[in-house]
Amino acid sequence: MIGFIENLKEIILEVIVVLLPLSLLFLIFQRYLLKLPKQYTKNLLKGIFLTFVGMILFFQGIDIGFLPAGEIIGIYFGNLKSNWLLVPLGFMMGFLVTYAEPGVIIICDQIEKASNGFLKSNLVKKILSVSVAFFVALAMVKLIYGVALITIIIIGYSLVILLTLISDREYIAIAFDSGCVVTGPMAITFLMALSLGAASAMEGRDPLIDGFGLIALIALAPVITLMIFGLIIRYKGGLKNG
Fold this sequence. Notes:
By secondary structure, this protein is mainly alpha-helical. It has helices spanning about 1-35, 40-80, 85-100, 100-115, 120-145, 150-165, 170-180, 185-200, 205-210, 215-240. The chain has two domains: about 1-65; about 80-240, no CATH class. About 85% of the residues lie in helices and about 0% in strands. The chain starts with a helix and ends with a helix.
């Protein structure tokens, strides 16, 4: 119980340090520059309070739930003789975690609004979730069979550079922003804990060398997939116009 309270105090302090400067900045802009109606300020303060409470509950839940659960699951499957089961498990977990990631939900809604409904939020969310799931499964393959991370990184970013040269600017921007968003708190806590747990349990694997690198692969997933999706849209549009 004492550990729980101490951890909660640390989280509250961290959230205050994050939110207080932003809140003050918003209020200064509202007071001296924006001068919007008072109702806006009231809504802003309500939003700050709800965000404060939500972030505390979220991070506390991650510390006492997601991190230990991810590590225990990783250790369990890493100890199995059929540790190849980590590959389908990684795919499933990658999909579910990304689909539930708050940042992914927000950016998908923003993409739909910015594209005037052309790119539907649910479609983009599914594309991001499947792409991350594939790369988490690839990370499990790397972990099980000892594939060097540098090999995947070189191939992956070479493909990114090639796609960047031939893709439309709109999809390039969306792809790179999405790559940052999918590496949010859900992915970093649960999926990385899963990878580190599996690496610590598997013989001949070092958590520092083999357990890390997962987040780098996750960040690649939307960048590659969304630019390929943009090329498919262009190709189909070209066929229709022709």
